Amino acid sequence: MELVVKSVAAASVKTATLVIPVGENRKLGAVAKAVDLASEGAISAVLKRGDLAGKPGQTLLLQNLQGLKAERVLLVGSGKDEALGDRTWRKLVASVAGVLKGLNGADAVLALDDVAVNNRDAHYGKYRLLAETLLDGEYVFDRFKSQKVEPRALKKVTLLAGQAEVERAVKHASAIATGMAFTRDLGNLPPNLCHPSFLAEQAKELGKAHKALKVEVLDEKKIKDLGMGAFYAVGQGSDQPPRLIVLNYQGGKKADKPFVLVGKGITFDTGGISLKPGAGMDEMKYDMCGAASVFGTLRAVLELQLPVNLVCLLACAENMPSGGATRPGDIVTTMSGQTVEILNTDAEGRLVLCDTLTYAERFKPQAVIDIATLTGACIVALGSHTTGLMGNNDDLVGQLLDAGKRADDRAWQLPLFDEYQEQLDSPFADMGNIGGPKAGTITAGCFLSRFAKAYNWAHMDIAGTAWISGGKDKGATGRPVPLLTQYLLDRAGA
Question: Is the domain of 102 the same as that of 195?
Fold first, then answer.
């Protein structure tokens, strides 16, 4: 779908469908009044019959109104006088998109300037959410369907706004939607195809397409030679060898310290010897969504050519049970020299991440952010709406929280108090890889913090937000690509 921005009178525009807002109690804003006047009161007449209450997201389609060049006029309810919240605004836009998809028109014009959105400026913030909602709503994953989704007639949507900030909003939204789609594609792929070597090939293809991106893939021998005993242990039970993928984007000045994104890429997680229950295990293909979201964020950064230096580290392995798999009770030595007693092989994400966090030190980063579908406890704590966030630097955590609010991709900070660290004590090694049944998300963060003392670090647990579980809407969400991209946009001043 192509999104364009124009500044013309809604009443004079030629289009298959013109979309205008109507408030509750038949209230017309400036745009709707002008269209009503041009149509000789046709809209007012319809509203007087009570066909549209004006509640947010309600729609009414009108055909062939006199005095207008638009073939159809779609009225959409915009609610009471007060500004809409982000969620209501998104639902309104999604409602419009749903109607437009069912029509045969090749284009549509949205004249929604009169709708106010709470805590969003009238131009960039509001239209960024609008554009992201439209573009993300176009996503389809039918690669393995014998019967493909029929191409939609709607090819172009024009936003009547005429502001430079709206054009910037559309540009950013388009890049974010591209990144989210890439993330969702990777997450939705079956694990027999999407394994560590496949992700390495995806990285290489990305490197070929972008000169500013350098790609290096560390194989299992290199991982072992570097002393990454925890990382190596996770993949040793699988026929699919582990890979550490390094993507280095130089968009800023040579002397600028890079930002580092670390993604957990467990392409399938059986739990290993600590085998998971069979029900729902198919969804463990989504355990690589941390790595997928880093991929997607990088795609957005490349499309926008942001003036930052960015290093992406993807810790990819498959966690399988076999005669060669790691056992509960094994002790491994990490790249940092610290030893870990593996009490539960299903707590494998922190093992690949801890060595990757140590590897990140060599880049002398401004900040390191790891993203992982790490703990079921995070879903218990925050559900599927909010990402868990922890870190060792208040400024970094605050920047990520703010980016989440601005992107409508929210996170919530959890504590990393010293008391929680004690739950990781082991009688046989420097630490265990689990901290018992209490505060599982926090103790996982505490574990990672022991390998991130050399720099400013934050950890994002996306176990609840990376995919929708079960039902007809099952699939990867593309989160937290909007949050991460917003964080980098803020750092770049873009």
Answer: no
